[in-house]
Amino acid sequence: MQCGWPLLGPLQWIRYVTKQVKVKAGKDEELRGWLLTVDPVTASLVLVDFGDVGGSSVRVVMGHAVQQVEVLQDADEEMALRLQAVFTPPQTRSLDLDPEQLRRRRDRVRVWLEKNRVPVQEDGDQLTVAGALILSAPYGPDDCCSANQIILDRVQRLLRTDPHHLDPPEDQDQDRDQDPDRDQDQD
């Protein structure tokens, strides 16, 4: 591809996505990487380079600076999956837990929030906190979703202070059974 990258448009750009490319940009700058995506507004390229150690680096090449894009190779199936996973969060711990363990964890978190006088309701597999935050499995601080930054921060900090928030569910039940301060009327 010669000059005029921003003028090509999305229908042409898509032909370069998930391919290893060489990009000439600016004054004699040449970059290589796997083209993850192209911003449809600015024509900026997102290049991913996978290191030998297993990490990856991401570079954004501003669309107005692109002078030439050359395809070096197509992605095989393994590389396509690696590219898809670049911005995908790591699999949650809930995949390692059976439904009963998740139910116990959800109940424990609900009780912890109620103990700290936080209004919480069960909504299927999720917990709704103060009508402004949703807590999904596996019910840890990073599993909170809210547009209200203040509530999000406070609930996450509260969940981090839960003495059992990192323990596996089986260990938590054993700890509760051995806890002498536990209310006897909960049985």
From TrEMBL:
Residue ranges of the TM segments: none
Pfam families reported for this sequence: Gemin6 (PF06372), Gemin6_C (PF20417)
Record region (Disordered): 161-187
Coiled coil: none
GO biological process: spliceosomal complex assembly; spliceosomal snRNP assembly
Gene3D superfamilies: 2.30.30.100
Localization, UniProt: Cytoplasm; Nucleus, Gem; Nucleus, Nucleoplasm
Tree of life domain: Eukaryota
PROSITE patterns named among the record's database cross-references: AD (PS52001)
Ranges where the AD domain occurs: 70-167
Keywords (A to Z) from UniProt: Cytoplasm, mRNA processing, mRNA splicing, Nucleus, Phosphoprotein
GO CC terms in record: Gemini of Cajal bodies; SMN complex
Compositionally skewed regions (Basic and acidic residues) per UniProt: 175-187
Predominant cellular place of this UniProt entry's protein: cytoplasm
Free-text function comment from the UniProt entry: The SMN complex catalyzes the assembly of small nuclear ribonucleoproteins (snRNPs), the building blocks of the spliceosome, and thereby plays an important role in the splicing of cellular pre-mRNAs. Most spliceosomal snRNPs contain a common set of Sm proteins SNRPB, SNRPD1, SNRPD2, SNRPD3, SNRPE, SNRPF and SNRPG that assemble in a heptameric protein ring on the Sm site of the small nuclear RNA to form the core snRNP (Sm core).
Subunit structure: Part of the core SMN complex that contains SMN1, GEMIN2/SIP1, DDX20/GEMIN3, GEMIN4, GEMIN5, GEMIN6, GEMIN7, GEMIN8 and STRAP/UNRIP. Part of the SMN-Sm complex that contains SMN1, GEMIN2/SIP1, DDX20/GEMIN3, GEMIN4, GEMIN5, GEMIN6, GEMIN7, GEMIN8, STRAP/UNRIP and the Sm proteins SNRPB, SNRPD1, SNRPD2, SNRPD3, SNRPE, SNRPF and SNRPG. Interacts with GEMIN7; the interaction is direct. Interacts with GEMIN8; the interaction is direct. Interacts with SNRPB, SNRPD2, SNRPD3 and SNRPE; the interaction is direct.
Protein name: Gem-associated protein 6
Taxonomic source organism: Scomber scombrus (Atlantic mackerel)
